[in-house]
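Cross-posted from the bioinformatics board.
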Amino acid sequence: MSTIQITLPDGSTRDLESGATGLDLATSIGSRLAKAALATVVDGAMTDLSTPLPSGSTVAIVTEGTPEGREVLRHSTAHVMAQAVTRLWPGAHFAIGPAIADGFYYDFDLPNGARFTDGDMERIEAEMRAIVKENQPFVRSEHSFDEGLALFADQPFKVEIIKSVQEGSREDLDEVGSASSVSAYRNTDSFVDLCRGPHVPSTGRLGHFKLMRVAGAYWRGDEKRPQLQRVYGTAWESKTALEEHITRLEEAEKRDHRKLGKELDLFSFPTVLGPGLSVFHPKGGTIRRLIEDYSRQRHVEDGYEFVNSPHITKGELFETSGHLEWFADGMYPPMELDEGQKYYLKPMNCPFHLLIFNARPRSFRELPLRLFEFGTVYRYEKSGVVHGLTRVRGFTQDDAHILCTREQMHDELISLLNFVLDLLRDFGLNDFYLEISTRPPEKAAGTQEEWDEAEATLTAVAQSHGLELVLDEGGGAFYGPKISVQAKDAIGRTHQMSTIQLDFQLPQRFDSSYIGSDNQRHRPIMIHRALFGSIERFIAILIEHYAGALPTWLAPEQVRILSVRNDHDDYAWEVAKTLKAKGARVVVDEASEPLGGRIRRAKLEKIPYILVVGDDDVRERTLGINARGSNDPERGVGLDEFVNRFVDEVASHGMPEGR
RNA sequence: GCCUGGGUAGCUCAGUCGGUAGAGCAACGCACUCGUAAUGCGUAGGUCAGGGGUUCGAAUCCCCUCUCAGGCUCCA
């Protein structure tokens, strides 16, 4: 018997009998590894544990609990679900079933137009558990295209995939395995699925899964093609990992800004207004005012000019800008006046800012001109897409347009990105990465040099911040490249925050120009930028980031003072007066009901500081401090000491020290 | 826009087989005056999302509309 030599990831080598598989390799290393093994990576490509290893290859064992291991496990679980569905609904067609973040899905088309209901989830799960118990093997086979078409003759979606690969489409290569043949995995005589693999050795290796929901999904993601039913599930390597995942979902749900917005009385969506239209209540309005005030202050410091524009305009403006040509679907239909004049609600502020620029001849000496506005815009989002404050039909952008010369573009972008990151950090968002969208391959406004310079500058600036940079090749709009700042929140979700977009197009459409030092007219470059994106969305992200416990400087109510008995009320009001003189937002809650109940209510409202004043405090001019996040009140703190602490914390944008 | 599931008091929810509407919290009133996460008693609060239908009788069954949630598509 000949032997083969295998190199392990650590560089060591092992000799195995010819024909040895990944499982043999794992077994030769240790029984625990063999038990945890799910698949192998042979020279960088994932294969099944049962595939014979080629001599001289470098092999890594994929184990449970690793990202690759989970992917294999989830993908295999998707197959089990497809089998379960075909058992329960004979004749069901299945389309595509990949592993995704935290789980998997599979798309189905049930016979006779049948639909899944929520109650079916349990039935399918039970059938899946039976399949797991049967410990069916995953057996790989390779076929020619014709064999593949015959094998899946009763599965039209699979046939379509095979045919499209056969015709040279690369889109479905991942499903099939290669451009010259198709691979399939068989679990039983009656269930086989087209698949690239790899899979776990047998269904007995699975089991820690849960079906989450059913949803409609278009075949091929195309709105015009039939809608299939997608079943989502989550799957993990152990019961503990599954439970932890469920707990994380519950945690995210607790942070949901729509839920907290209601509980904390910040904003609402009165149904009489229509979908995607919000009202801010006093507390939410306070948060909003604080965010806007701070933003205004920073913009003044950074050399922005404040402008203002109306919410409606004649259609001509958006004809000039091109919005009516390209973006009409996203706009509210026009209001038509008696004379036939059409007025539109504005979906964007940029054309107005260009009118301001164009209002009189501009000199190069005025550039860069930075025009800022909290501009409220209206977009007719499709009814199914509105979501809390993050996707609405009426919202306010912290919108600015910078008009500058091409020579100024570089420095302007550098200072702009610094400004953005600095501002976001002031709100406690610290974990960023950047995404750069570059020149689209087909048509693009502006010269190649302008694009190159803009892209190089954006890249250099991003790198100078040491931030992770994701390239969105060719993803820019035709009128200019874009950089967007993605921020990770406290539980690791990413949100698109700021966008900085260069525009080589709009100044041309509006025939904007400035007079250069050469006494000639020149076309300015325009930079669109919104740092919060929209204030509504930014508030939503902050609420979720902080789980509603906003830092003291942003808390609508910062301090609540509770008197122990009514004869402490006067002192409570005196403390309130002292704090208000320092700008604090304070409420006094007099002793009309027991202290415990008042403490509880204030805690539920996530107020940063609850101050309790009783006999000792009136006598000594002190306070009892119950800070948010703490269940261990501090007694006998001097009033002046607290005031200083509070003022420092607000100035530094800090949080209460909940011990 | 499409698919699936919802909509009962301000909030969170219960409501059996189709038989005439319930709880807790919040609100309001009275009493209680208390040192760190729920004081007690009482009062009031409903077009069961809206409209239509079936029925002796509808929160409950059927249809339409509105709206919300989760997805899909979309997000220049």
